[in-house]
Amino acid sequence: MLPATERRSTTRAVALLFQIIVFVSYVFGPIAAFAADPVPSDPAAAPIDSSAPAPTAQPSLAPTDTPAPAPSDSPAPAPSDTPAPAASDTPAPAPSDTPAPTAAPAASRAYIISFASGSTTAAQLATLAAVGATPDSSIPQLHMYGALLTDAAVSTLLADPSVARVDLDRTRAAEAVPSDASYADQWSLPKIGWDSLYGAAAIAGTARVAVLDTGIDGSHPDLDGVVVPGTSILDGSNGLTDANGHGTAMAGIVAAETGNGYGTAGVAYAGVSVMPVTVLNAAGLGQDSDIIAGVVYAADHGADVILMSFSNPGYSAALQAAIDYAWTRGSVLVAATGNDGLGLATFPAGDRGVVGVASTDQTDALATGSNFGPAAFMAAPGVDILSTSLGGGVASVTGTSAAAAEVAGAAALLKANEPALSNGVIV
Q1: pLDDT tens, 172-185?
Q2: How far is residue 382 CA from its own chain's centroid?
Q3: Rounded to an integer, what distance in angstroms lies between the CA atom of residue 101 and that of residue 160?
Q4: C-alpha distances in angstroms, 249 versus 129, 203, 219?
Q5: pLDDT tens readout for residues 39-90
Q6: How far apart are the first and last CA of the chain?
């Protein structure tokens, strides 16, 4: 363990050299320190770090201070009963022995049902059973269930005082895909000051990054010494396989083994481990219910940093609740803003308590295709970033996913260097 004075000096060096460029006024215009909720929420649920000064709020990009309306894809009200046909003088046909055709079942969609605190599990299950819903997943810590619901069932649940929210179980997509290596240099490391820090600052402690993604190739020679078993929310495995490659690339950017004479160097060059939490399938897609379960798992299993390199423009109060849960347990949450080249809000990057990351190129300009605006808290290099690929190789990644991974690595390195730092101070 380093002396206190040397730890403080090292912390200052880490903080100075890892000031990944913030585009609050240069690129993005004035934005809030954390993107505001687009729907009203309970102020008591906001993840505030009481031990550190709150980030200074900037004026919002919104033209007025009027709260934004609820997301447009909120469940539609149940259709009204079809009126009975008008009576006529024509006698009704005589009953027939032929059975009447069976009515087609009402269409169902996947939802996340959140119950108010204080209700029992038995009561919650009874409420769901009363509308014909069978839960296919549950998160007891947040009083949440995943289930298929008809529009009529949604309306009934929303009218029940024991039900806090009913959210669509949206699909979110990974924001970058690994490609063949095309560059010989990791240009982003000197850009963020990494080359000045490595070899000059000894890291005193440890930190853990939960990579919520497609899994991690645990046999990769540049990761096998830093990866720890995690979980797959999808199949219950330990997460140490990756059918897509995206999660393996993110893990390598965060903490690829450094100084081992092989592959690439990780932003977090010492003291940091990566833990796979598989929430995206082989196509890089994941449901909110699985992502929420992954966030809760990461927070409950000691994740100092939670990396979420995926996005969707739809806000979810259920996902926000999971993020609040992780924040109160000390996790730093980092997410990609997306690659649509637009200034719209995306989530989870735009959620309260999340560091939303946009992407920059070799000239420090906003990268082509990077989202910006209300979901972007900061920006980091994200173009042609070399990292670990499936099968033990090296590949290039471009996108806000890579930029978010660089920020997650820097946050984890700060935590490892000074374990007493709170998530608010790190942010």
Answers
A1: 877 653 332 433 47
A2: 17
A3: 33
A4: 43, 24, 13
A5: 333 333 333 343 333 333 332 222 223 333 333 343 333 434 444 434 333 4
A6: 24
Structural tokens at position 334: 């980092």
d(CA 336, CA 129) in angstroms, rounded, equals 38
What is the residue-wise DSSP string for 261-278?
Answer: SSS---SS-SSEEEEEEE
54 burial (CB, 10 Å; 0-12 / 13-18 / 19+) is exposed
Question: Residue 285: which H helix or E strand, with range?
Answer: strand 285-287
Give the H/E segment covering residue 389: strand 385-389
CA-based torsion, 116, 169, 345, 281: positive or negative: positive
Residue at token pair 């490595």 = 198
Structure tokens at 43: 């102020």
Cβ-contact 68, 374 below 8 angstroms? no
Q: CA dist 53 to 59, 153, 304, 321, 357, Å?
A: 18, 44, 19, 23, 21
Helix axes 288-300, 317-328, angle to 10 degrees: 10
Distances (CA, A) of 325 to 47, 53, 250, 329: 8, 20, 24, 7
Residues 381 and 240: beta-carbon distance below 8 Å: no
CA nearest neighbour of 242 among 223, 255, 269, 258: 223
**Catalytically active residues, by annotation:** 213, 246, 401
β-pairing verdict for 144-149 and 171-174: unpaired
Give strand ranges (E) for 150-224: 163-168, 171-174, 179-180, 207-213
Say if CB 345 and CB 3 are below 8 A apart. Answer: no
Strands 305-308 and 207-213: parallel
Is 74 in contact with 170 (CB distance < 8 Å)?
A: no
Rg (Cα) of the chain, in Å, rounded? Answer: 24
DSSP-assigned beta bridge partners for residue 113: 145, 166
Strand pairing of 231-232 and 207-213? unpaired
What's the predicted TM-score (pTM) here? Answer: 0.73
Point out the least confidently predicted range of 144-158, 174-188, 211-225, 302-316.
174-188
- The span from the CA of 259 to the CA of 253, in Å, is 15
- CA pair distance 399, 310, nearest whole angstrom: 11
Where in 30-181 does DSSP place strands (E)? Answer: 109-115, 137-139, 144-149, 163-168, 171-174, 179-180
Q: Taking the C-alpha atoms of 26, 381, 212 and 332 in order, what is their torsion angle to the nearest 10 degrees?
A: -50
